[in-house]
Automatic annotation (TrEMBL):
The keyword Isomerase applies. This is 5-deoxy-glucuronate isomerase. Keywords: Isomerase. PANTHER family: 5-DEOXY-GLUCURONATE ISOMERASE.
């Protein structure tokens, strides 16, 4: 059976630049979100221009030196796996700038892109800046880390990561954000970069619209990117397999206003409770 057109698998071995998976607005057939994941070995470097995009470089794991045209941050990074219970270091780089990343250890790096206006200077986002939330309850409990949420400066990018323990559901109850009808709903394209522990496992993601003109239930493998151009998009982590994903969202207005599937909204009963912000050693534990 052909794989879903919503799935962009990672390459088994990185290309010359270290890139393992890439989504551009042209490849996705949409307007705003771009995403790349890189695997760099110690001493390897990535150099790039931001062009008309602003970028959020998320150091998913490993340590690196990061620089832009005006900034240099040395020996950045703490966690060595996305499954360590602590927020990542990230760097915001505006449009019209450039960045270089030199790996000091094995590095997994996400480059999240969306249209920029050059409004804000480059900055380092440290773990203590990352708001951590435990969302859901029982089998829907998961950890949400808000890396670049709408309360923090950026022109169009929103970036968040989610840890879903095996046996749990996240992005749940199913919600969508595909209509520009503020203040009730915002239009945001979204990518999911999935990692699975242990890596031979799988996750399940359904992407569906009210009229079911889009209705796909996807088997997600470690390293897959799932595109959410529209529709509801819940994720299930099978028992025994923890699931991590990094979300990038962008659209015409930088705000996340979602609409729950009315059929399943009853499941949610005042279950979101904030915990302390990330903290140097990460504020969350599991
Ligand atoms: O609630 C979650 O588990 C995460 C989702 O909010 C996810 O970030 C998303 O779908 C954003 O639209």
């Amino acid at each position: 059976m052909p794989k879903s057109e919503l799935v962009v698998p990672s390459a088994a071995t990185p290309g010359a630049s270290g890139c393992v998976v890439e989504v551009t607005p042209a490849s996705a057939g949409w307007r705003y979100v771009g995403f790349q994941a890189y695997r760099l070995k110690p001493g390897e470097r990535l150099e790039s221009e931001t062009g008309s995009d602003e970028c959020c470089l998320v150091l998913l794991s490993g340590k690196a030196d990061i620089r832009t045209s005006a900034q240099r941050w040395d020996d950045v990074g703490e966690r060595m796996s996305v499954f360590e219970p602590k927020p990542p270091y990230s760097a915001y780089v505006p449009s019209g700038d450039r960045f270089g990343v030199e790996a000091l250890t094995e590095v997994e790096l996400a480059v999240c892109r969306a249209p920029g206006k050059g409004t804000y200077p480059a900055r380092l986002i440290v773990p203590a800046d990352v708001g951590v939330e435990i969302r859901g309850q029982g089998l829907t409990e998961r950890i949400v880390r808000n890396i670049l949420p709408e309360g923090e400066p950026a022109d169009s990018l929103l970036v968040v990561e989610v840890y879903t323990p095996g046996g749990h559901w996240s992005s749940y109850p199913p919600h969508k954000h595909d209509e520009d009808r503020l203040p009730d709903e915002s239009l945001l394209e979204e990518t999911y970069y999935h990692r699975i522990e242990p890596a031979h496992g799988f996750a399940v993601q359904r992407v569906y619209t009210d009229d079911r003109s889009l209705d796909e239930t996807i088997t997600v493998r470690d390293g897959d990117v799932v595109l959410v151009p529209r529709g509801y998009h819940p994720v299930g982590a099978p028992a025994g397999y923890d699931v991590y994903y990094l979300n990038v969202m962008a659209g015409p207005v930088r705000t996340w206003k979602f609409h729950n599937d009315p059929d399943h909204e009853w499941i949610m009963q005042g279950w979101s409770r904030p915990v302390a912000a990330g903290g140097k050693n990460g504020g969350d534990s599991r």
